[in-house]
Specification:
Elements: E1 8-10, H1 19-32, E2 36-39, H2 47-57, E3 62-65, E4 68-69, H3 75-88, E5 93-98, H4 102-108, H5 117-131, E6 136-139, E7 144-148, E8 160-164, H6 168-177, E9 180-184, H7 191-204, E10 213-222, H8 226-241, H9 244-252, H10 256-267, H11 271-276, H12 280-286, E11 287-290, H13 292-304, E12 309-314, H14 321-329
Parallel strand pairs: 1-2, 1-12, 2-3, 3-5, 4-5, 5-8, 8-9, 9-10, 10-11, 10-12
Antiparallel strand pairs: 6-7
């Protein structure tokens, strides 16, 4: 997939709407020619149920989880899920996985969190083995599986696995063991550096990136009120600045003064000031806000930087959520 550009659409914004509107948005995404729909999972709708709804209501659209934590379901369940959905919709379901965060894993789920590449490596190995229908015996640091075999028929082709990656190590792991990568909150200028790490991982795994899916979530709002949208975006970014891995990622992407100033204000308890420290340069690097022509042009810059699949993540600050999200969806491809 590195050779040609495809466009993705994130559907989580629509997930809070009535089910009929959610399904209609997925159908419209397919009709408009989006390549892959994505949906995340945190504290809203669960991504497997949404994926099932979308795959059942469409014929060509790929459906990817962007992303499922590897800790909240066992790798055996994740393997069965990927196999089941690919059996129902051959080749159309992509399993996107991530390490999640301490708050989600420890506080919300009461599980042990360790931001470990090794845990991801083990989980992917088990998921692939399970979905292939072979008998699985696995003794790892994080997982032990004894004598499991899926009785359902394995899908053909096997499920694709995509890893959420920010830092160099996870990018290299994705290049080595996955079928694709999903990046997040990344300015176009930082993409070439990420591709270098993917290539290094692929080389380590003795493979090329020829069919590798390279995607990134890009927050987009096509609107006549850019100022309101930018304030919304600044609050959203601030929520990520408080997460250590994102803070260091933003620093590496060139936003050191903003991250330092916003973090200091946040720690001092001044949340409004923290949000104000998210500069116009920071907002323009990470988000796409404006009229349709501007947004299409900006998205093209992401593609030119080497991103094979920009994923439009519609967001809105407007009262009519559905109409506003659909306006963004309808501005592409």
């Amino acid at each position: 997939m590195t050779s040609h550009h495809a466009l993705g659409i994130a559907l989580q914004g629509f997930a809070g709407l009535p089910a009929a509107d959610f399904v209609a948005a997925a159908r419209e995404a397919e009709a408009r020619g989006y390549h892959t729909a994505w949906t995340g999972e945190a504290s809203g709708a669960d991504a497997v149920t949404l994926s099932t709804l979308v795959l059942g209501a469409t014929e060509r659209l790929n459906m990817a989880t962007g992303v499922l934590p590897i800790q909240t379901r066992t790798p055996v369940i994740l393997g069965m899920t990927a196999a089941t959905l690919n059996h129902a919709a051959p080749g159309r379901f992509i399993l996107g996985l991530g390490l999640s965060s301490r708050v989600i894993i420890e506080q919300w789920h009461g599980l042990r969190f360790s931001p470990s590449l090794e845990q991801m490596r083990e989980a992917v190995a088990i998921i692939r083995a399970v979905a292939s229908g072979e008998r699985v015996n696995f003794e790892g640091t994080y997982y032990r599986v004894k004598n499991f075999r899926m009785t359902a028929p394995p899908p053909s082709p096997p499920p694709r696995v995509v890893l959420a990656a920010l830092g160099p190590e996870m990018l290299e792991l994705a290049g080595e063991i996955a079928d694709g990568v999903l990046m997040n909150w990344i300015p176009p200028e930082a993409i070439p550096r990420s591709l270098v790490h993917l290539e290094a991982g692929a080389k380590r795994g003795g493979r090329t990136l020829s069919d590798f899916l390279i995607g990134a979530f890009i927050r987009v709002c096509v609107t006549d009120d850019p100022e309101g949208a930018r304030q919304h975006l600044a609050r959203d970014i601030m929520g990520y600045v408080t997460v250590d891995v994102y803070a260091s990622f933003f620093r590496a992407a060139g936003f050191v003064p903003e991250v330092d100033a916003a973090s200091a204000a946040w720690k001092a308890g001044d949340r409004p000031r923290a949000v104000r420290e998210i500069s116009p340069r920071f907002l323009d690097g990470l988000g796409v806000v404006g009229d349709e022509k501007f947004c299409r042009g900006r998205l093209a810059e992401f593609s030119r930087s080497g991103l094979a699949m920009p994923v439009v993540v519609p967001f809105t600050h407007e009262r009519d959520v559905c109409a506003s999200l659909l306006r963004t969806l309808r501005s592409f491809p």
